Amino acid sequence: MVKNEFFRKLNHLLRELPKKERDEILADFEEHFTIGFNEGKTEEEIIQELGDPKDIANAELADYDATNPARQGGATSATRSLLLAIVLIFFNLVVVAGPAFGIFFGFIGLWFGAICMVISPLLSLLSYFQSGFDAFLFTFFVSLACCGVGLLLSIALIYIGKFLWYVCAGYIRFTIDLITGRKRS
Amino acid sequence: MNVQFKKGVLELCVLVLIDTKDQYGYELAQNISKKIEVAEGTLYPLLRRLTKEGYLSTYLGESTEGPPRKYYSITAEGEQYMNALINEWKQFSKAVDQFIKEGAGHGEE
Prior knowledge:
The complex is a heterodimer. Chain A has helices spanning about 5-15, 20-40, 45-50, 55-65, 75-180. By secondary structure, chain A is mainly alpha-helical. Chain A folds into two domains: about 1-70, no CATH class; about 75-185. Chain B has one domain (about 5-110): Winged helix-like DNA-binding domain superfamily/Winged helix DNA-binding domain (Arc Repressor Mutant, subunit A). Chain B contains four helices and three strands. Chain B has a three-stranded antiparallel β-sheet with strand order 1-3-2. In chain B, a hairpin with a 7-residue loop joins strand 2 (about 55-60) and strand 3 (about 70-75). In chain B, helix 1 crosses helix 4. Chain B is elongated, with a radius of gyration of 17 Å. The interface of A and B includes residues 32, 34 and 55 of A.
């Protein structure tokens, strides 16, 4: 393990702490490394002496929990989580689920439309057998235009899909954070 | 040494060392690990807690090489706390010594 990795691990393990606290802790270790380097120690030696980031983080988190009554008391916070979860489930079923399904199926419908438009030149061949060459030419060129529009629509849909995915994932993460009472900053 | 046991005693050691002389984190870690086997990283949470509890205070001191260092010094409150811990420790270690002596003597008979 090298210095960067040590800091990355520590930072990750301390993610539940407010940013200010975390920065203070990391700054102390930054100083420790700087002095260690000045004394001719290598990254590995210093990290070896410091020990497992997990132990450091556990000690910090335990102290933080002890001095912050808001996060104390497993029972009350569990009840709070449960109540919040129930409220959120109802809220999601009643308010969020309808529009979300609507948007989801609308999105799928648009995809079907786009695919049909893209393959429409192939379908236009059918009109050749039914109504002769002139009609076929007309249908064929119209369908080519449709194909172009369909391709553009597909590209737009890919972007829209990505956007919907981000929104969806973000919302789910937000909900989970709300229930577990975790803070991100 | 047993981890839980060391944790309690370490607090006392940190206070005594800082009472003797103001020092920065790295220095303190070196001074302690010279005599007691300890993961130096876990001293920092301890220092932060003692500072939050008002037993230690910090200030930035210039250094000849590199950026200024964070020095820890003991407060009046910290000194009181330290003396209480020292008394507890003396009583405790005296009792333990006695148990060991009695136990060892008993074994020889």
